[in-house]
Amino acid sequence: MVTRFRGGTGDDPFGAPATIRPMDLGRGALTSIRSYRRVLGVLVKYGFADVLLETGMSDLLGGAVGRRLSPRLLGHSRPERFRMALEELGPTFMKLGQVLSTRRDLLPTEYIDELCRLQAECPPVDWKDIEARLESEFAGRAKELFGSVEREAMAAGTIAQAHAATLPDGTRVVIKVLRPGIHDQVEGDLATLRFLAERLEDAMPDLPIRPTAVIREFARRLRRELDLEVEARSTERLRQALADDPNVTFPKVYWPQTRKGVLCIERIEGRLLARTDYATISAETRRAVVEHGTRAVVRMCLEIGFFHADPHPGNLFILDGNRVCFIDCGMTASVSASTRRSIADLVLAVATKDPSAVMAAAVSIGHVDVSRIDRRALELETQELVDCFVGVPIEQIDVAAVLQQFFDMLRRSGIECPPDIVLLIKAMTTIQGVGRDLDPNFQLIEYARPYVEALVRERYTPKSLSRRLRESLVGWVSMIERLPADLGDVVGRLRENRLGVAIRVEGIDDFSESITRAGSQVGYALLLASLLLSSGVLVLASRIGDSNLLYALGMIGSFVAFGLTGIYLFGNWRAARSERKRHRKARRAG
Fold first, then answer.
1. Which stretches does DSSP call E strand in 490-533?
2. Angstrom distance (rounded) from CA 225 to CA 178
3. 355-366 and 399-412 are packed helices; what angle lies between their axes, rounded to 10 degrees?
4. How far apart (Å, rounded) are the C-alpha atoms in residues 396 and 435?
5. Which of 12, 248, 391, 462 has its CA 20 to 30 A from that of 354?
């Protein structure tokens, strides 16, 4: 599927002026409010007006927001329309969709499955723009560094596109070039996403995820992808880490021809798995490819701790001798030794049917604040996880299945899974899917078991135990060393009467707001009562003094008081109704 960008034309389907001002957008935001309106306009077009109305973001459009879909969209599901909206909004939003497709802890499965379809090529950039980019990156020396560059793109993505090229000595290479103007476009789109995420978070504070945190993580990852030297270093690092495996390789990086905006790697001569009919591959070759690719991914994840996070068929080449080559190292991640040990503890806890150990692993892997979770609910979830593997010996436990179910458990418990674990699960499940497509008898555990067993053994070897004991002793010694200074600080604060105690009470903010609102209502009621009383006094005085002016003032005051009283009662009724709706919604969510 070729995705065409229809956004960015500046077409505005809404006639009324926007109600936000440039000073509301903050420093670093887009130079035009129209960009905000374009994003919201596309969301309305694809049937998400209810979200804008519910969050209050519809006021950014300044006009009436329609809910009716065009006839051509009626047959599409909501997830499909979400994917189509991202496609229309352009590269940054498509990249956001691709990143979200890896975060099954954030979106329902039907949205994830639809967003996976965004892994598609985009229309290529005109050659003149690419040529200008090359001259800019190499300060006018591009013709010296390259013998030739093919004008037609081999592939075009949301961030960059690839061209076949040769070096002056005739070496065949591939260069990956960032799209011209992509930095400015990305920064502008990120400003829009940050602004909208803040509005969404303010309007819906009870969301199970924090939109601003999601956008912050997305921005960090996207900026890494905009620096192709980072991808070059990742490629070189993985190439060196797996250099001892003759059956697995990564492309060679040509550093003189590589810059932040251009990546130059060797051209791989082989069959791209995504473009190969599996029926044309012999059973022996399929088994070999599955074995080599799976062992490499598992080793990267569980032994090396730095891994290719997207080993799908479009990133795998079959070379002569049934060797496997991984390409496109733009999505990589690191997992610490302590996290890998926690994963081993998790597998061991599942194998030994120990729910408390599973919960300890969840707390360790998820960096969970135990004071902020429902321990009883988490205990029930861990018991269900353990029950799924009752009777299965450790040598037969599928580590990918354990991680996926563990991941689902964290999501149901409202625990945010760290991004490195999310990508590790993605890498394992992706290569598992590739393996099953190539070999119906494929079992990931056959390749993962040696590394899991090694992690478990390493966890309880005398060397590991002594290391953990040494780390604990160092921690205690450091605490004892700081103790005199800490006690001195406390004594000094006591002497100067500067020691205070802060107590945080859950719900105190809502209670304080209720008290403030009640005080305001009492004051308003007293003001109305005073106005009515004063008006009555003026009417009585007019009868005694036979004054038409006093009578008129008294009647006007009475009408005003009655009108304000009606407004006051109507406002209280609306507030009470909104509060009841909020409580009902909270009960349904609970």
1. none
2. 10
3. 70
4. 17
5. 462
Q: Are 125 and 90 in contact (CB under 8 A)?
A: no
Which contacts of 183-187 are long-range, i.e. CB under 8 A and separated by 24 or more positions? 183/226, 185/90, 185/91, 185/92, 186/91, 186/92, 186/222, 186/223, 186/226, 187/28
At CA 509, angle to CA 503 and CA 513, rounded to 5? 140
219 touches 95 (CB < 8 A): no
For the stretch 280-283, contacts whose Cβ atoms lie closer than 8 Å and that sit 24 or more positions apart, written own/partner, are 281/318, 281/438
**Phi, psi (5° rounding) for residue 302?**
-105, -15
Using DSSP, state whether 238 is helix, strand or coil.
helix
Q: Which two tokens stand for residue 33?
A: 């409010």
Q: Mean pLDDT by 10-residue block, N- to C-terminus, for the chain (590 residues)?
A: 33 35 41 70 84 73 64 83 88 84 75 78 86 92 93 89 95 94 88 85 73 85 91 96 95 96 95 90 91 92 91 91 93 86 77 77 70 71 75 66 73 72 83 87 78 73 70 76 79 72 56 64 71 73 71 77 74 70 55
Residue 571 token pair: 């406002």
Torsional class of 252: left (φ above 0), alpha (ψ -120 to 50), beta (otherwise): beta
CA distance 563 to 474: 73
- DSSP for 250-300 reads -PPB-GGG-BTTEEEEEPP-SEEGGGS-GGGS-HHHHHHHHHHHHHHHHHI
* CA gap 374, 382 in Å, rounded: 12
How far from 447 is each of 182, 400, 425, CA to CA, in Å?
Answer: 41, 11, 15
Pairing mode, strands 324-326 and 306-308: unpaired
